[in-house]
Amino acid sequence: MHTYLDFERPIAELEGKVLELRQLAAQDSSMQIEDEVGRLQLRAQSLITDTYAKLTPWQKAQVARHPGRPHFCDYASVLLEEFTPLAGDRLFAEDHAVVSGLGRFRGRAVAIVGQEKGNDTTSRLARNFGMARPEGYRKVQRLFALAERFNLPVISFADTPGAYPGIGAEERGQAEAIARATEACLALGVPFVTVIIGEGMSGGALGIAVANRVYMLEHAIYAVISPEGCASILWRSADKTQEAAAAMRITAQDLLELKVIDGIVAEPVGGAHRAPAEAINAVGETIAGALDDLSGLSPAQIRQQRRDKYLAIGRNLGG
User: What are phi and psi of 208, to 5 degrees?
Assistant: First the structure.
């Protein structure tokens, strides 16, 4: 069953009427519903198009968190062949919020890492809702070392509400692990492409996303803190969440204008959750193009391009 967001209530009502008509027709074969169903579907599609063409930043945050949105494992199962997961950080434990491994992307051997939130209660608990602990970021460092050693391009998919803030994680060096993972991102001498597929929050996302090319899905969000966290700090009130979302400039469109990201991957009308296969294919095309562009560069050029990119972001935002 489709999950509707708060601002989608008019859409839900129209699509609900279509479902009711189909159920009635199933009980009475003499009913002629095609014309009415067609009319309602056209209205619903028009309403979806209009609604998603003018989403507010807070509404985009809701779409980015939609439970039906494709997650990392959905992308990996479609885009990768011969995927071999690599578990554990060789220091403490396996972190199920971060999935990493080796595989083939359109015939090209790659190293891949992504944050996985899970898609039901059981898997979300097992994945810790996509919030990685220090061992997750140390596993990322291990993967990057393998990629460097065997000259494998790196692809990462960021989708997390942030790194896990629990006491155990802090005791095991959460901040240090994220900093080391970010340092490992910058040191890579192989092409590195990141896609923000949902929410990329704080250092939790940066630890796998400081890449040569960074792309965002059209309705993804990317920021130093969640809108709720910002509202609680600046206004000490959850009622200011929408204002915080707007002020923080968290949307793909804002971040492309600020030159923080390199491009936007268009989503199907109504969001990636309405047509996951179409969204996954669009992401695959974007990654393939980016890897082709970076494939002719030497390790020194790869590192220099990445360094220049992030220094330019600082100059641009600072100016």
Answer: -125, 10
